[in-house]
Specification:
Helix content: 10-25%
CATH class of the largest domain: Alpha Beta
CATH architecture of the largest domain: 3-Layer(aba) Sandwich
Radius of gyration: 25 Å
Largest sheet: 7 strands, mixed
CATH superfamily of the largest domain: Vaccinia Virus protein VP39
Shape: globular
Number of helices: 11
CATH topology of the largest domain: Rossmann fold
Number of domains: 2
Length: 464
């Protein structure tokens, strides 16, 4: 256990969750945060397993007295990630809870009581629209941003300089496009610094000139060793909307794509060879079934939400046959990183070489939104034509989602500090609620270099 040091500045992580911000801070400083606060016992259990030297408060942020918590120590950094669901556009037109939206005011409370030298706050982009809520429970459009402006002025009245920006995790080495609002307030007279991106769009000039690394891609988090069962052999058939999205995704990312993503799969055989073309599909049931909610594996992962696993891995197996061998089912052709118990799934489309109208499986029933003809699902790879004969799908696993969010490989997600199993549902929820560690790491290095160290038990997972 870390000794109490009254002379060293401490770091406090409010709304600590499963530890995304704390992990990023530790990546930068080499030390666990001193205090972590969260009302959720499940979140604290994960945080304690990974940050055993931290003093944990499993209670509401309003119930923790900053003065009593710091015990006379000065606070160098106070991090805040207040609940974002009642700011997010993902909430749609549903009523919001003004009390939950008001949780952000706890940052001003800490500023007034213990005056942290640097304050950092993370939330969704819509946080800037924070304003009064009407009797119907919905934000008043004409008063959008009023409360946010008061929030900023509260810091300024306390002697803080404040600035804010929107940052994307993929620009700092995480394989996700997750974009978030970040606010920095400091009262030590030093300028606020925003970290320069380390990664960029692969076709951009800075990347081509070698000034930035290309974005890390979704394919990095996929475990291509896991089986991917056929969608046509499920005990409970997929709903029609999901089938349509799979079909549209196949059309966009495989059939109509001149350069489909190809992943190598180990295979032994004298006359046969196999390729795998893959993409990710989303499972947001509230969207139109005709909308392609997917992405190529050449891109960073889309935002992971706390509402469950919403990504499905769709992989197209391109199988080339010679002679009389017209193909066989491959139940485990993809070794993928899966997130079981959520809505992220891997779908594999099995394709075989196309030599005529008599070869191939009729997909008219399950994929009726795509016109079925003799040359249905035709894909050309390196001059060879292939045709879809089967489609497989599996859900991604939590240990795929966490690397996708930017967590280090050695982060503990399946058990608490006492070794008790941590439910898969809770694992996914903590990931969706988490801050991508890459961003706190970059922000702390830019603003608190005196805290930083190159020695940390968490290795930054940044690709070359």
């Amino acid at each position: 256990m870390r000794q109490l040091d009254l002379f060293r500045e401490i770091i406090v992580d409010n709304f600590a969750g499963g530890g995304g911000a704390s992990t990023g801070i530790e990546m930068a400083t080499g030390l666990s945060v001193d205090i972590a606060i969260n009302h959720d016992p499940a979140a604290i259990a994960m945080h304690r397993a990974n940050h055993p030297d931290t003093e944990h408060y499993c209670e509401s942020v309003w119930d923790v007295d900053p003065i009593k918590a710091v015990k006379g120590r000065k606070v160098g950094l106070a991090w805040f990630s207040p609940d974002c669901k009642h700011f997010s556009k993902a909430k749609g037109g549903k009523p919001v809870d003004k009390n939950i939206r008001g949780l952000a005011w706890v940052a001003v409370r800490w500023a007034a009581k213990v005056r942290p030298r640097v304050i950092m706050l993370e939330n969704v982009e819509e946080f800037q629209d924070w304003g009064p809520v009407g009797k119907d429970g919905k934000p008043i459009e004409s008063k959008k941003g009023i409360t946010f402006n008061r929030f900023i002025k509260s810091f300024e009245k306390l002697g803080y300089v404040v600035d804010w920006r929107e940052l994307k995790a993929c620009d700092y080495g995480a394989p996700t496009i997750r974009k978030r609002f970040f606010l920095i307030a400091r009262c030590d007279g030093r300028p606020i610094a925003w970290p320069e991106p380390t990664h960029g769009e692969p076709e951009s000039l800075p990347v081509k000139m070698g000034k930035l690394k290309p974005w890390r891609i979704s394919a990095e988090i996929i475990d291509w060793s896991l089986p991917c069962p056929s969608i046509f052999e499920r005990k409970k058939p997929l709903v029609e909307k999901t089938m349509r999205r799979i079909a549209l995704g196949l059309k966009k990312f495989v059939i109509d794509n001149p350069k489909p993503f190809i992943a190598p799969v180990e295979y032994s055989g004298n006359d046969n060879s196999k390729l795998v073309s893959a993409f990710l599909t989303s499972y947001y049931t509230e969207t139109s079934s005709r909308e392609v909610r997917g992405l190529s594996l050449n891109e960073p992962l889309h935002t992971i939400t706390a509402g469950g696993n919403r990504f499905g891995l769709v992989t197209s197996h391109l199988i080339k046959f010679r002679g009389n061998n017209i193909g066989h089912r491959m139940d485990e052709p993809l070794h993928t990183i899966t997130a079981g118990g959520n809505h992220l799934g891997e779908v594999r489309a099995f394709l075989m070489a196309y030599y005529g109208s008599s070869i191939g499986q009729d997909l008219k029933e399950p994929l009726h939104t795509i016109t079925t003809r003799d040359r249905f699902g035709l894909v050309t790879v390196h001059g060879q034509e292939y045709q879809i004969t089967d489609i497989g799908m599996r859900m991604l696993k939590p240990w795929e989602l966490y690397p996708g969010q930017g967590f280090p490989d050695n982060y503990i997600i399946d058990r608490d500090d006492k070794g008790n199993p941590y439910p898969v549902k809770e694992q996914v929820a903590r990931c969706g609620n988490s801050v991508s560690p890459m961003l706190p790491d970059a922000l702390v290095r830019a603003n608190l270099p005196e805290f930083c160290s190159n020695e940390s038990r968490y290795k930054r997972a940044v690709a070359n």
